[in-house]
């Protein structure tokens, strides 16, 4: 419930702090005194858009702060959903800066307006004669029936399974779309994979193949080069090795004369040994250089295949081709795996559909069972509110789809007078009738579900006398289950309140301000008397006011 309201620099209010209590509270005041300003401030706490024109002093920021005791509201799950820290005493604050920027806070944590709007739905409900559109909303009508039927847990179970059902259907749709794409790609992917697998890439060494091809393709040139090199090295008269032996023999004769001469001799000996080894290796290599046209053709074909695959896939190495081969293999496996996932999801969806059918049937049965009792309660209240011939009819139709609250589609039909046919509520009920019907529904709901704080803004417009008295009794009865405020001009209703607040304006030479105070017993009598007789309060009005307060 709303326990405290603090307003600074908002419209005609300079500074206001007032505490509220449980039960039925009345707010009265002359037209233009500032009741709409209070509602505007509360609207900011509900997440409504801020207006820079709301600042009384354009150079200072506006602050509206409300303190709500939510301990008995069971809102922990909602706070978690909204990513808010749960506090039994929750403080909502809105600030409008002179720059026009608006900020919102819940328990000092900044929030966006969407969060504030969703949270405030469970905290405060402002209802006026002109805000009866929800009565014509089918979802709201079902909520009313569900409250009376006690369907909360059943509905939560249904909605939990519906969430899974929708999630799985969405996943199934995505998988089927992916399957269509894969089917389109699969033939080509299979062709590419088979082509790569046929190349047996894992056994290919591109560097070795290219080297072997160069060797095989240049056999004659290699043989000629190796043969001439051998001849130059080992020819009997002109070979390099023969000449080197003669040099070594000559230097060997001088080696004993000097250390330096000995080192020269050793170096020549080393060169002779190395050249002899090179000559032997050249001879061995020459024997292995054989023209093999079949092997040359084979290596050439392997390389051409490799180059063609690299060009097709726009890569330059065998490793990259192997990676593409693996990717293609995974893609083809995915298509197979996808079928299994689709089958599993379809089975799960069938299972959930069965659960949803059973739960929606139970919901529908419970609703139909609750409707007669709901109709009776509403009609009993409406009779007290001056509508003795009102009649309701709930028509149930089965939806082909799973809706957010089951498979029921409800039409609330209404007839205000005897002999008139039923029609849709929004089409046949007048504004005054809609207000009384809404009050009746809220009164019934108060007994079955934990409604938030409700503010009736002049819902009694157009009624008087006994009907007004009954309205006051109904709102007073509602306050046994919830916190109720009524902004009213009717003394019959004002007298029913447990607490009475007055809105009034004060003016000086410079400015006009709106204020709100709680009336004591004496000032309350005078306020109700003034509502009865006007500014000139008579003794009979005072007596009548006392009588109203003691009923």
Automatic annotation (TrEMBL):
<feature type="coiled-coil region">
    <location>
        <begin position="148"/>
        <end position="175"/>
    </location>
</feature>
<feature type="coiled-coil region">
    <location>
        <begin position="328"/>
        <end position="369"/>
    </location>
</feature>
<comment type="similarity">
    <text>Belongs to the RecN family.</text>
</comment>
<keyword id="KW-0067">ATP-binding</keyword>
<protein>
    <recommendedName>
        <fullName>DNA repair protein RecN</fullName>
    </recommendedName>
</protein>
<keyword id="KW-0547">Nucleotide-binding</keyword>
<dbReference type="GO" id="GO:0006310">
    <property type="term" value="P:DNA recombination"/>
</dbReference>
<dbReference type="InterPro" id="IPR003395">
    <property type="entry name" value="RecF/RecN/SMC_N"/>
</dbReference>
<comment type="function">
    <text>May be involved in recombinational repair of damaged DNA.</text>
</comment>
<dbReference type="GO" id="GO:0006281">
    <property type="term" value="P:DNA repair"/>
</dbReference>
<dbReference type="GO" id="GO:0005524">
    <property type="term" value="F:ATP binding"/>
</dbReference>
<dbReference type="GO" id="GO:0043590">
    <property type="term" value="C:bacterial nucleoid"/>
</dbReference>
<dbReference type="InterPro" id="IPR027417">
    <property type="entry name" value="P-loop_NTPase"/>
</dbReference>
<keyword id="KW-0175">Coiled coil</keyword>
<keyword id="KW-0234">DNA repair</keyword>
<feature type="domain" description="RecF/RecN/SMC N-terminal">
    <location>
        <begin position="2"/>
        <end position="508"/>
    </location>
</feature>
<dbReference type="Pfam" id="PF02463">
    <property type="entry name" value="SMC_N"/>
</dbReference>
<dbReference type="InterPro" id="IPR004604">
    <property type="entry name" value="DNA_recomb/repair_RecN"/>
</dbReference>
<keyword id="KW-0227">DNA damage</keyword>
<dbReference type="GO" id="GO:0009432">
    <property type="term" value="P:SOS response"/>
</dbReference>
